[in-house]
Amino acid sequence: RGISTFASLADPEEVTSGCLRLAEDIQSGRIDEVRASYENQGGDYLFVIATK
Predict the structure, then answer these.
(1) Is 2 left (phi over 0), alpha (psi -120 to 50) or beta?
(2) What is the mean pLDDT of each run of 10 residues along the chain (52 residues)?
(3) What is the pTM of this model?
(4) Separation of alpha carbons 17 and 11, rounded Å
(5) Structural domain containing residue 24
(6) What's the pLDDT at 27?
(7) How many domains does the chain have?
(8) How does DSSP assign 1-52, residue by residue?
(9) How far is CA 1 from the centre of its chain?
(10) Can you tell me the distance from the alpha carbon of 52 to that of 46, in angstroms, rounded to the nearest whole number?
(11) What's the alpha-carbon Rg for the chain, to the nearest Å?
């Protein structure tokens, strides 16, 4: 178990279904289309440090 809310709040069936879809997208190459559609090539998460 992790500390992520994903681990504690996610529906196990939904996670299983999503992982299967992800595997299909990786096998078919569709994952490349999805990744290319994002303007930020850094990923889905953003870490910002601000100073005053």
Answers:
(1) beta
(2) 72 91 97 83 75 90
(3) 0.58
(4) 10
(5) 1-52
(6) 98
(7) 1
(8) --S-HHHHHS-HHHHHHHHHHHHHHHHHTHHHHHHHT-S-TT-S--------
(9) 18
(10) 19
(11) 15
Do 12 and 18 form a contact (C-beta atoms < 8 A)?
A: no
First to last CA, the chain: 37
Dihedral sign computed on CA atoms, order 4, 52, 43, 36 = positive
Q: In Å, how far from its chain's centre is CA 39?
A: 15
Q: Which residues contact 49 (CB under 8 A, 6 or more apart)?
A: none
Res 2: pLDDT: 61
